[in-house]
Amino acid sequence: MARKHSKHGPYDDAQDEDESPAPVVPCWLCGRPTGKTIVWHHPVPKSRGGRDVVPMHPICQQTLIANFTNSELQRHGMDVQGLLDNPNVRKFVDWVANKDPDFTATTAKKKR
């Protein structure tokens, strides 16, 4: 018995000529344009009632997680400047400023 509806639409192979590339979104922490991989980070952790998400590089998110506890992140909330006042985070942002958007490296472990 033949299917009524195809799995694929009749125009799947057709490409829109007007398709423009997606707009470049800046990273919430470092301000550099994001690359192919974007992490949607909760500035206030979900475990602490956070609902808002912001775009970040994976390496920037790893740096925040390594330097702050969930309680500290909750206290800072959406205040990027408060996070940048931490000397470790400031040093990281200055170091990563001239790197490629898809740059990745290992980050320091949590200091607890």
TrEMBL record:
<feature type="region of interest" description="Disordered">
    <location>
        <begin position="1"/>
        <end position="24"/>
    </location>
</feature>
<protein>
    <recommendedName>
        <fullName>HNH endonuclease</fullName>
    </recommendedName>
</protein>
